[in-house]
């Protein structure tokens, strides 16, 4: 791979290396130099231009006349469209219908013909393969191609030239594995003492599972918040290279990813997309777990094609992901003056959120967010409130509380045999209607909360009045919908504020 990377034609489209910028605030917190490889500053705001151009620049004359086709959730599509425009060839792109609008518009502006198909990359890839077979156009893979991998590997050559000599580690995001395979193979050839780690979201961790089992593992479903790495299985080339050269894979949560977007913004005033911030999230995760080697570390900021509508959701989750906000459910007695007494017990702390409504004449539940310095302080506050006579449940890691309950605290209703479920479905026009039509009118809906937060998936919290004898029938209906769902009836956030 080193020879391929040295002969890659990336310099034709990126004549200057992307910057390797210091992240001083994050570095100070972690106690070591942290550097960001700014792939978000390429002409398509992503590293994908490297692999796409290197592959397409090597087309034969006949292949150039036939044109290029690719399947992509966005960034690879922009790389292929940009390369096609530069090389003067026809280009078609197949994208999932869940692709953020900012990426669709960007590809259109580069002159490519776009077809939106299916709900994920697998659907788009199947359609692109069909078009290639029918039209004779050349399929440009997003990651499992040696020329594509070699193009991404040029990032490693630049990092080793730009970074301090005592560089300790490099963190890279992993989807299909092209970037991780390219960077790790070149680094290990030239500087084997430098450790290279991949980073995946916990709901799309195909490479981590594959490496753990020693074979390619295909996931049934993937989360698509970090749509740039929403891949169900790694490629054959990428898996073999990562198995040989990668030092490990760090798996991070959605909240950790949102916190990493905030970290990069505070140091650079740039806004990365979720997949683009994964490497920073993994670096921080490794530091907390004691797995970060001593010395300077690099995180590849791989992309910045962020849908603006998603920023509010990212902001909401970032503080919890950084453990700077504690979310607590506190029970207080329902009598005159008790609310003031509780506020006095909280003391002069920065309150980020307060939700309260009378729920009975005996006691009330308060949903409160507090600014904290870390998880240890949050735990100490919860213990202190308990000693003061206020039973307290920490909901900081409770997804139901963060995604739904905090937006709908408002007292209880008189319902019978209620069951609560959360559902996740691809966010595209008509998806909510399709969900409701599939659910049908067999059972009464007692609660419903849907919030579009600008991501590629929608989340619904739904309460249904279902007699115990009919719950098996309900589950059969839900299984047939084809949407991911989780029963939340016993979730403490739901029990305290919604049941």
Brief sketch in words of this structure:
It is built from 20 helices and 18 strands.
Structure in words:
The chain has 499 residues and is of the alpha/beta class. It has 3 domains: 1-314, 3-Layer(aba) Sandwich (Rossmann fold), CATH 3.40.50.1100; 323-397, 2-Layer Sandwich (Alpha-Beta Plaits); 418-497, Biosynthetic Threonine Deaminase, domain 3 (3-Layer(aba) Sandwich). Helices cover 41% and strands 20% of the residues. Helix 6 (101-109) links the parallel strand 4 (91-95) and strand 5.
Helix content: 40-55%
- Could you tell me the mean pLDDT? 88
Any idea of the CATH topology of the largest domain?
Rossmann fold
Strand-pairing-aware structural class: alpha/beta
Low-confidence parts, pLDDT < 50 over ≥5 residues? none
Q: Output the number of helix runs.
A: 20
Q: Which of globular, elongated, flat, extended, rod-shaped describes the shape?
A: globular
Examine the secondary-structure arrangement and name the CATH architecture of the largest domain.
3-Layer(aba) Sandwich
State the end-to-end CA separation: 58 Å
Strand content: 15-25%
Seen as an oligomer or otherwise, the chain set is: single chain
Q: Mind telling me the C-alpha Rg?
A: 25 Å
User: Main sheet?
Assistant: 6 strands, mixed
**How many strands appear in the DSSP assignment?**
18
| Tally of individual domains | 3
How do the strands line up in the largest sheet? 1-2-10-7-8-9
Could you name the CATH class of the largest domain? Alpha Beta
């Amino acid at each position: 791979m080193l020879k391929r990377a040295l002969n890659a034609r990336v310099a034709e489209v990126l004549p200057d290396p992307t910057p390797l910028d210091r992240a001083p605030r994050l570095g100070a917190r972690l106690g070591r130099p942290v550097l960001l490889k700014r792939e978000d500053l390429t002409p398509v705001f992503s590293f994908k231009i490297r692999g796409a151009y290197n592959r397409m620049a090597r087309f034969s004359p006949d292949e150039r006349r036939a044109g290029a086709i690719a399947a992509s959730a966005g960034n690879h599509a922009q790389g292929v469209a940009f390369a096609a425009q530069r090389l003067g060839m026809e280009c078609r792109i197949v994208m999932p219908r869940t692709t953020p609008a900012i990426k669709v518009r960007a590809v259109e502006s580069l002159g490519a013909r776009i077809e939106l198909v299916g709900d994920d990359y697998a659907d788009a890839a199947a359609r692109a393969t069909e078009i290639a077979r029918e039209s004779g156009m050349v399929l440009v893979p997003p990651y499992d191609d040696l020329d594509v991998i070699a193009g991404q590997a040029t990032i490693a050559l630049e990092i080793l030239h730009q970074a301090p000599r005592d560089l300790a580690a490099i963190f890279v995001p992993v989807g299909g594995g092209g970037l991780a395979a390219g960077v790790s193979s070149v680094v290990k050839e030239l500087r084997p003492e430098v450790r290279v780690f991949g980073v995946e979201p916990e709901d799309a961790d195909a490479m981590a599972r594959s490496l753990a089992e020693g074979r390619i593992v295909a996931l049934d479903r993937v989360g698509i918040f970090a749509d740039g790495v929403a891949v169900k299985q790694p490629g054959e080339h990428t898996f073999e290279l990562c198995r040989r050269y990668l030092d490990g894979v760090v798996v991070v949560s959605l909240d950790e990813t949102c916190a990493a977007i905030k970290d990069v913004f505070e140091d650079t005033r740039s806004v990365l997309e979720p997949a683009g911030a994964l490497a920073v999230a993994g670096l921080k995760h490794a530091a907390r777990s004691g797995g970060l080697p001593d010395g300077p570390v690099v995180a590849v900021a791989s992309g910045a094609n962020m849908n603006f509508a998603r920023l509010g959701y990212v902001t909401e989750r970032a503080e919890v992901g950084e453990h700077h906000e504690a979310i607590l459910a506190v029970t207080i007695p329902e009598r005159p003056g008790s609310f003031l007494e509780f506020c006095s017990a909280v003391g002069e702390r920065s309150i980020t959120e307060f939700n309260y409504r009378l729920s009975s004449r005996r006691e009330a539940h308060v949903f409160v967010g507090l600014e904290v310095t870390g998880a240890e302080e949050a735990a100490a506050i919860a213990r202190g409130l308990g000693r003061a006579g206020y039973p307290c449940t920490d909901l900081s890691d409770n997804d139901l509380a963060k995604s739904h309950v905090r937006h709908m605290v408002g007292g209880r209703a008189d319902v019978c045999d209620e069951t609560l479920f959360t559902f996740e479905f691809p966010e595209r026009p008509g998806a909510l209607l399709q969900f409701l039509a599939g659910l049908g009118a067999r059972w009464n809906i007692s609660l419903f909360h849907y919030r579009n937060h600008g991501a590629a998936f929608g989340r619904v919290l739904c309460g249904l009045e279902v007699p115990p004898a009919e719950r098996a029938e309900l589950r059969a209906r839900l299984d047939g919908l084809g949407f991911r769902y989780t029963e939340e009836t016993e979730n403490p956030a739901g029990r305290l504020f919604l049941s």
